[in-house]
Design goal:
This protein is α+β, with helices and mostly antiparallel strands. The protein has helices at residues 6-20, 28-38, 50-68, 104-120, 153-160, and strands at residues 73-82, 85-96, 99-101, 122-130, 136-144, 147-150, 176-178. Helix 1 (6-20) runs antiparallel to helix 3 (50-68), helix 2 crosses helix 4 and helix 3 (50-68) crosses helix 4 (104-120). The longest helix has 19 residues, at 50-68. The two termini are 29 Å apart.
Length: 185
């Protein structure tokens, strides 16, 4: 029997919601993501639903992160805005014996929210990598205009060291290296 991917589970969750509305009413972030993905129309060029295409892009982003991030533990965060509300979700991933391990429900939720951001064309993605005996490394990407754009070290530093509510500078996180993000292919 073939192994199911996070995308398989996300597609199942999306289909179940489309058919029966089975997602928990108290999970506003996932419900907003699914609502956005469900509201997309078919592409005029290829006829594919943009929500399904966004899931494929989100899956490729996760694969590229797996291939490019150093360390043994990652904390990934993504966000998108929907109905004047910012929706943020995180995912803790551990590398054990060369394989990535994460909570399946959290991975599905993360993939759906990342796909919603891709579909909407306005989202952010951050990755904090932990290495044994070394400082954490932080990288970030912006998602918009059909592209996933890596942020420079200075942009990542500014994003992490600025209070979002006030715009005032805040001290950098200890034992943290702010890094140039790499191109996600």
């Amino acid at each position: 029997m073939p192994t199911r991917t996070a995308r398989d589970y996300a597609e199942t969750a999306l289909l179940e919601h489309m058919i029966t509305g089975t997602l928990s009413d108290d999970d506003h972030t996932t419900n907003a993501a699914v609502a956005l993905l469900n509201s997309t129309r078919a592409c005029l060029c290829c006829g594919n639903n943009a929500g399904w295409a966004a899931l494929a892009v989100a899956e490729r982003i996760l694969i590229a992160l797996d291939q490019g991030l150093p360390g043994h533990r990652y904390h990934l965060t993504t966000s998108f805005d929907h109905d004047a509300v910012r929706h943020v979700v995180g995912l803790q991933v551990d590398r054990v014996d060369g394989e990535l391990e994460a909570d399946a429900e959290d991975a599905i939720r993360f993939l759906l929210v990342l796909a919603a951001g891709v579909c909407q064309g306005s989202a952010g993605l951050t990755a904090r990598s932990s290495r044994l005996g070394g400082d954490d490394q932080v990288r970030a990407w912006s998602i918009g205009g059909g592209a996933v754009s890596p942020l420079s070290r200075a942009e990542v530093f500014n994003a992490y060291c600025t209070d979002a509510a006030t715009g005032e500078p805040i001290p950098p996180c200890p034992q943290t290296e702010y890094c140039d993000a790499f191109i996600l292919r």
